[in-house]
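Typical record was shown:
=====
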Amino acid sequence: MKPEQPSEAEAVPVALPVGTVGVVDEGTGPTVVAIHGLPGSVRDWRWLAPALTPHVRFVRLDLPGFGKTPPGDVGYDIDARGAWVAAVLEGLGLEDAVLLGHSMGGPVAASAARQSDRVRALGLVASVGTEIHVMLRRQPGVRWACYTLHAPPVARAMLPYLRRNFERTGFRNVSDDEILQACFVLARVRFGTNRANLAALRKPTLVAWASDDKLVDEPVSEKLYWAAPIGPRIRFPTGGHNIQATRASELAEALLAWIPQLG
């Protein structure tokens, strides 16, 4: 279920030591910070926001190269982007945050949670797991193509093919620059890095997914269930990949019941 209306708040560019960051900051109370997937932006959380903000401070970030955050010189691998999130938390002065990651934002959030003592708990929402998921298994050529895109002539030639593949999996209205940024990250995804970060993490972790997710298939989510540190496990029978929207009310209810237990 969804709230009646989404939050249409736009990201505000905030100058921090790490660079300019697009931020939406709503509500008061315990801090929850949200990291979107790939490609994506703060808008990916617009349905969850009104379900949470009467009770928590909900901070949404645009990752480098998306929304209002320029690419900068941030690396594309999971741990480099996790370090960037950790630096943003410090720059914003956020403490004791519950850090949420959706889809490819999940491994980034897990890395940030491992690197930052400002994170007290982690939430993985329809998250990429510890092994390759169905979207990438069905399109092995996409990751291969992503390795070739730093040369501008190659990027121009490959963009129509990449756009068709992104649109086929539901990612529409994405700019050329954001497609390229997404591909640069995809080319450097190492599932072993996510496994190692989760194994080393000692912070409570919520894992939520839907059985009918067409991008991250349920067997991957079930393995993430066991790989992540102890915490709530929520399986929705339906809701697809974007349960932060389709199941916003139920997800918010679970988070609001869990947060007070974290101490």
About this structure: The domain at 12-132+190-262 is CATH 3.40.50.1820 (Rossmann fold).
